[in-house]
Amino acid sequence: VDTLKHKIQGLAEKKAPQLTALRKEHGGKVLGETTVGQCIGGMRGITCMISETSLLDPMEGIRYRGRTLQDCMDQLPKAPGSKIGLPEASFWLLLTDEIPSDAEVKALNEELHKRSALPESVVKTIDSLPKDTHPMTQLSIGLLALQPTSEFGKAYRSGTLKKNEYWVYTLEDALSLVAKVPILAARIFRNVFMEGKHIPSDPSMDWAGNYAQMLGVSDDALFKDVTRMYLMLHADHEAGNVSAHTTHLVGSALSDPYYSYAAGVCGLAGPLHGLANQECLRWLKNTRQELGGKEPTVEVLTQFAKDTLASGKVIPGFGHGVLRNTDPRYVIQRQFAQDNFPNDPLVKLAEVCFQAIPPVLEATGKVKNPWPNVDALSGTCMQYFGLDQEDYYTVIFAVSRALGCTSNLVWSRMMGLPIERPKSVTLDWLSTKVK
Ligand code: FCX
């Protein structure tokens, strides 16, 4: 932890003059105009927030601290025998702007294991939930049940916490939250789908590999890799998306990371955001069932896609609020599937969708990005290894997104960002304004 603190502090000292200059010398400069359309249209494209951890390019996708996801795959330390950049190494990168050494990732994993035990009260809360409560609801309840353990909350209540120490306690909570979230998530999985038969955490394993073994759906070493890949690719996606923005907004009120991330997880549970991965697998499975053993063809899939649109539904796994190209997270998962299980029926179906669906969406004339996003394949990769409980998929997304959302909270407190309070107006106000 000391090394991590030291590195974050060092980076903040380097960035401090930049932040001061931007605030003091350029604070009055105009960044862009806001149109009436943007005001009504979900604030799309308005530059109005700082997030140091990652930046999205509409064509090339997300970069973690300037590194593309392929760079992260290539450069981040790996588990023995694996080709996947470790997600906990991306956590280090997001926090410090440095690729950690193997020894640093090992030390980070030891620290996470030390912090990973769930308090008995949290275990009881989770175990008492009805099994038909959606896993995402269970996860947000679990995160809130952990809130009393917040070091930030305790320190703030003590009345002695200074502003320049906020980030230190936020980092403490971020580390503990990241340490506990896979344990909590695996417990939810085994409670809901495996009759409450739990698999203990293995302190010799990496963060994501251990999560995979606690889920316990497959002994295949590749299942650990697919989990590592899922958790590395979903870690961060700028701060404007619903889960990251919600976490950031709630954190700006100095609510601690447990409150803030529980709120973010509730946003991730929306079908237009994180829940799209479960919707996508459902769509693929239904399509496969309706095909009734017939080989999927572009013609048939084109018709299925048109029928979905005609019934007033969106085609899950396609489109994006900001990306304007095939999501690089999709590209990396596609490569993994092609390298390891190209003949899986759902992988084959997803391949045909890749050809059939973009032209159908393009033909509507309104979809800004007809290309697949991350959710179009993440579930398909998981189901191959037997994790086909699609209601659970967004929980895996949430385990991963904890890395980005909490790193962002650390940096927001480090930079002393204030409570968020954008201006809202009424329709009458807008109408008067445009006259
Ligand atoms: N299927 C059908 N219609 C779509 C569509 C899709 N996949 N994508 C966009 N559209 C429609 C929108 O619904 C909107 O219609 P409207 O004007 O009648 O309301 C119109 O096209 C313009 O939308 P657009 O500006 O391109 O996209 P938005 O920024 O409004 O929405 C999302 C972006 C991602 C919400 C949208 O593309 C969608 O609903 N996709 C399917 C769900 C999905 O895959 N979500 C996951 C996204 C992401 F990866 C994540 O957050 O996890």
TrEMBL record:
What keywords is this UniProt entry annotated with? Transferase
Taxonomy, superkingdom: Eukaryota
Keyword Transferase applies:
yes
Coiled coil regions in record:
none
Keyword Transferase attached: yes
The family line of this record is: Belongs to the citrate synthase family.
What is the designated name of this protein?
Citrate synthase
Species source reads: Durusdinium trenchii
